[in-house]
């Protein structure tokens, strides 16, 4: 047998397949992704430009439709998808501009004001009402229509010349009220103690944590504040509706709870359905009964340009809304707007160093917050004023405590009669959970290098000496606050101090005591700032903080954040507790002096 005779029967190894290179597929995939991302980016960029709404022009005999609702708020610069995909949103100051524009537009015959439950404070409501009256002074008319009425909605509508109410409207006119929830008994039950240093007797912000009911000073200040706003409401509603004040007072005393009662009293003109109101407006605007009513929605008629900073003569309108904090946060834990010292100082310096800006108006709507942050902001405003640029404060609904701290640095202060202001005082709070830990059978051991290293530790109580030190620290800041306030008003400490002590005032009372300079709204403050700067005509109002550019928004983390959960929490958690939570989570944390209103007043 041959040696290789059976080699054919032996299985031969298969040839190895050639390795395929992954370079080409990866290159193709990369090119595809690059093109895809580029197309998406181009589409978003194109969308950002093409989606910008354009203002429509009114045709002859048009009626402007304005809705006042909970969406009418002071300005906060939007970010992320809020700008990319949101419709044209108007803020409070935009409506003031809108009314001025419509008053000068000969094609606008009048306004249909759709009155819905509003979130405006009383001072904002008064400012908007005054703007409606100014619009009517140009020979035009405003008809208001609403289905749900409280005092605030009626107050705004009373600035119109016709007020219509739905026949089955919900009417709740029974006077003003404010409630305060006290937590002391619940905290005692839980074993949580609260040390409070408050200067002085009217600085009642922490009273709910240390008392079970109102103190005399707390009740006195709240009563006078409510009564002051109530008197303005009665006086101005009766003046424009042409009814006797006592008749309205008598009606409120027994409750006005139906449309017909309101018509009989004279606060409403007629009880009509919306289609009937529209029929009356057709007749009033000279249209035939079967014609379609020429309504122009406010959001389409007025489109503000907030990105343009052109013009050589500018008034910077710097909006400051919310609690005052150190750092650079734009919103609090629950989505509430905040005034952060870093961002405010950045914007104020930008306005001060811009030669095109001739004067600055600071619109303040704040109950206060961190004493440190308030002082940092105060310093920057003083530097701006000393640089030669006029700075004017326009107080919104609330400009108290830290809000007043900001305002007192300005060259002039404007407030509305119903503005809540003052509260020149300081408070410090320290929480002790020693008893709670004992109840939970938790034991804490502490090692420290110095005797007071655990001064702000919440797991122990203060000694009497430490508690006195706590009071002294707060008292020192109170003295500094009042001294600066007195100097800003040109009086001595002793003359000014009786109007401090943490007490809140209405704008009217604040003017009587020398805390503010003039009664007026945002437009009045802007006009006065222009006068101080010597540019009484042809100037541009530049809103700050300015809207972000497209690529800034792309980098903004709010693109991937949802504010839906924050909105739900805001609806559940009281505003005062949200503010306290934000304060405790601020860089100062607990124990540091705060310049907050003595209590957050929600007037209903």
How many domains, as an integer?
2
Q: Helix fraction?
A: 40-55%
Number of helices: 23
Largest sheet: 8 strands, mixed
| Arithmetic mean of pLDDT | 86
- CATH architecture assignment name of the largest domain: Alpha-Beta Complex
Overall body shape? globular
Q: N- to C-terminal separation?
A: 116 Å
CATH superfamily of the largest domain: 2-enoyl-CoA Hydratase, Chain A, domain 1
> Which CATH top level class of the largest domain fits?
Alpha Beta
Helix and strand content put the structural class at alpha/beta
What portion of the residues fall into strands of 2 or more residues? 15-25%
CATH topology of the largest domain: 2-enoyl-CoA Hydratase, Chain A, domain 1
From the alpha carbons, calculate the radius of gyration and give it in angstroms. 31 Å
């Amino acid at each position: 047998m041959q040696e290789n005779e059976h080699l054919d029967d032996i299985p031969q190894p298969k040839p190895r397949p050639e390795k395929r290179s992954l370079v080409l597929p990866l290159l193709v995939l990369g090119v595809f992704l690059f093109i895809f991302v580029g197309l998406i980016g181009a589409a978003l960029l194109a969308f950002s430009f093409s989606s910008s709404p354009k203002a429509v022009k009114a045709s002859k005999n048009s009626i402007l439709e304005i809705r006042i609702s909970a969406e009418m708020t002071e300005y906060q610069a939007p970010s992320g998808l809020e700008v990319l995909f949101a419709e044209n949103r108007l803020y409070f100051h935009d409506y003031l501009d809108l009314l001025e524009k419509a008053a000068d537009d000969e094609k606008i015959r009048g306004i249909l004001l759709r009155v819905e439950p509003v979130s405006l404070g009383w001072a904002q409501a008064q400012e908007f009402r005054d703007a409606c009256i100014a619009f009517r002074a140009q020979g035009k008319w405003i008809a208001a229509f609403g289905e749900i009425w409280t005092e605030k909605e009626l107050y705004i509508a009373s600035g119109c010349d016709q007020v219509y109410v739905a026949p089955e409207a919900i009417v709740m006119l029974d006077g003003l009220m404010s409630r305060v929830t006290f937590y002391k008994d619940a905290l005692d039950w839980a074993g949580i103690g609260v040390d409070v240093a408050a200067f002085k007797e009217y600085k009642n912000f922490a009273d709910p944590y240390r008392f079970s009911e109102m103190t005399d000073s707390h009740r006195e200040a709240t009563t006078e504040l409510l009564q002051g706003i109530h008197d303005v409401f009665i006086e101005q509603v009766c003046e424009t509706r042409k009814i006797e004040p006592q008749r309205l007072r008598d009606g409120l005393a027994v409750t006005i709870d139906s449309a017909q009662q309101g018509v009989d009293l004279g606060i409403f003109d007629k009880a009509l359905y919306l289609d009937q109101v529209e029929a009356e407006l057709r007749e009033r605007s000279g249209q035939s009964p079967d014609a379609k009513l020429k309504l122009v929605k406010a959001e389409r008629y007025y489109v503000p340009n907030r990105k343009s900073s052109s013009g050589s003569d500018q008034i910077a309108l710097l909006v400051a809304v919310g609690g005052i904090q150190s750092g650079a946060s734009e919103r609090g834990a629950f989505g509430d707007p905040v005034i952060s010292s870093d961002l405010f100082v950045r914007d104020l310096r930008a306005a001060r160093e811009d030669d095109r800006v001739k004067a600055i108006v600071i619109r303040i709507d704040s109950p206060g917050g961190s004493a440190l942050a308030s002082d940092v902001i105060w310093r920057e405003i003083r530097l701006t004023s000393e640089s030669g640029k006029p700075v004017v404060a326009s107080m919104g609904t609330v400009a108290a405590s830290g809000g007043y701290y900001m305002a007192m640095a300005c060259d002039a202060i404007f407030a509305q009669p119903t503005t809540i202001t003052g509260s020149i005082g300081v408070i410090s709070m320290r929480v002790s959970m020693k008893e709670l830990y004992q109840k939970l059978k938790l034991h804490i051991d502490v090692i420290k290098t110095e005797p007071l290293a655990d001064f702000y530790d919440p797991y122990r109580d203060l000694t009497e000496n430490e508690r006195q030190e706590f009071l002294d620290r707060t008292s020192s800041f109170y003295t500094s606050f009042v001294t600066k306030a007195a100097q800003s008003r040109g009086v001595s400490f002793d003359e000014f101090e009786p109007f401090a002590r943490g007490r809140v005032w209405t704008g009217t009372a604040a003017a009587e005591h020398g805390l503010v300079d003039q009664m007026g709204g945002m437009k009045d403050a802007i006009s006065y700032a222009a006068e101080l700067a010597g540019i009484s005509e042809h100037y541009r109002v530049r809103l700050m903080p300015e809207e972000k550019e497209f690529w800034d928004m792309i980098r903004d983390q709010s693109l991937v954040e949802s504010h839906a959960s924050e909105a739900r929490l805001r609806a559940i958690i009281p505003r005062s507790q949200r503010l306290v939570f934000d304060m405790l989570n601020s860089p100062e944390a607990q124990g540091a002096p705060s310049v907050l209103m003595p209590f957050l007043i929600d007037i209903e």
